[in-house]
Amino acid sequence: MATMKKAAREGRASNGRLLRLVARTALLAVVMLSLASLRLALSPAPAVGDGGELYLPVLLAELSDRGYLRHGSRAVFVGDAGSWAPFLERHHVAAVGVGQLQDVADESVDVVIFDGGAVEVALVNRILKVGGVAAAFVTSESTLQQLPDNYKAVFAHRSEATIAFALEKTGVSTSAAVTATVGPHRKLLALPGNKKDALAGLEAVLLEPPQKQHRRIIRRLRPRYLPELTGDSLEGYRRRTFIDVTPSRAGAGAASWFKKHYPRGKHEFDIVRLNAAAASAHEAAEGIAEWLEGNVREDDYVVVKAGMEAVEEILRKRAAVRRVDELFLDCDACAGAGADAAASSAAQRPYWECVALYGRLRDHGVAVHQWWELMNA
């Protein structure tokens, strides 16, 4: 009897351990399934064209680790974001449809992410800054063999069906496919021979600042304008704009002079006046280049009149100087120059600096003229 009771107790204990093991296994299975379901629910659907193998987070994580996605940088996803839109928004990446690319300013984006099977690099080239990165996923190596000549590879990762890659924009492409959107005047000046011929036709720089008694002579120094030098009819531009960067004390003389003398043909120009009022000339110039990058496109025809500080700010940004077709350099603020010669002070810059800046603009391919208030006196 004792042996039977002992066997019964051992059987019940064994059954209890078995039940506990089964219960723990079932609970673990429920937890695993719940975690998988939760992960599936929180993860967005795969992007269109990625074959279900590669997700956008892979590209975003790689770009972030390499320092391309950082605070203050502008990143966009080009294409149909679909259910990825909320995910992209959380990571400060703006979704832009292919049809909306025309509304994005030239060279205004630091990072472009796109589906390489649906969008070509040439389409996003215009909006990407030099030094910026284009990242995409493709299913064919042939796409990587047809890259523009102004990009270099940053990384490329392969999964079973997809290749994720990133390219850095190193400069302006010389291929026709990428430069096709550039206006006719820029395509002309992009050719060394034509550029040299056009700039050689500009009037000579004045090596000495004119004085009031030279007013009549100055008025006879008619500038040789870019449309006349190149034969450009000013047709085919998205917009034609004259931008006057001026101190607050100045009147509307520059705009009036431009309307009267510039060879506009039958075309109207938008007149934009940027008030450069500030405690110092340097402070007034800050932000001019950014304004050009954000408000002017390369298929616009742009004429700018500005002082030395503003022009130097423009020259610091390659994307900004490429948006300027013709420029009137205001040298009146230099010591001993123009109508304010009597008011010269130690704060004014020597006139030779204006002459040197004129030469730098010519070197950058900008049609530049010297501007004197005596022209309007």
Can you put this structure into words, describing what you see?
It is built from 15 helices and eleven strands. Helix 12 packs across helix 13 (308-316). Helix 4 (121-125) links the parallel strand 3 (109-115) and strand 4. Strands 2-1-3-4-6-5 form a six-stranded mixed β-sheet. A five-stranded parallel β-sheet has the order 8-7-9-10-11, with helices on both faces. It has helices at residues 2-42, 56-65, 85-90, 121-125, 176-179, 184-189, 192-200, 215-220, 226-230, 253-261, 281-285, 288-295, 308-316, 318-321, 351-363; strands spanning 75-78, 93-96, 109-115, 128-138, 151-158, 163-169, 240-246, 270-275, 301-307, 326-330, 367-371. It is elongated. With 377 residues, the protein is of the alpha/beta class. This is DUF7870 domain-containing protein. Residues 199-372 form the DUF7870 domain. Pfam families: DUF7870.
